[in-house]
Structure formats: structure tokens, C-alpha cells
Amino acid sequence: MKRNETRTTVKLRSTAGTGYTYVTRKNRRNTPDRLVLRKYDPRIRRHVEFREER
């Protein structure tokens, strides 16, 4: 069974410089811009922005 091409896997990297990443999926048709989410970074124990990396 073929995977859906509109939903792609993206890697979110912490802007705090710790190198911590999250992996998620997004719909490229609805959100063509790079994804920016505030998520928890366990290495510095606080919420920071995570930006999409290509």
C-alpha cells in the first residue's frame, strides 16, 4: 500500500541549540511554509520554538 504523498515526514529542531529534535508529519498542500511549534525541550527543561528542518 502506497503512502500518501501530500503528508510528508518533517524533522523539527530546537532553536535553543541543544540539537534535540521531534519528528512529525504535515500536509504540504495546507501548510506549504515551514512549520514552527512551541514544544518541550527536555535538555534545557523548558518550552522553546522548534522549526522545521529540511
UniProtKB/TrEMBL annotation:
What InterPro entries does the annotation carry?
Ribosomal_bL33 (IPR001705), Ribosomal_bL33_CS (IPR018264), Ribosomal_bL33_sf (IPR038584), Ribosomal_zn-bd (IPR011332)
Query: What does the UniProt keyword field contain?
Result: Ribonucleoprotein, Ribosomal protein
A Pfam family found in this protein is Ribosomal_L33
User: Which Gene Ontology terms of cellular component type are present?
Assistant: ribosome
Q: What family is it from? A: Belongs to the bacterial ribosomal protein bL33 family.
Which named protein is this? Answer: Large ribosomal subunit protein bL33
**Natural source organism:** Lipingzhangella rawalii
What gene is this protein translated from?
A: rpmG
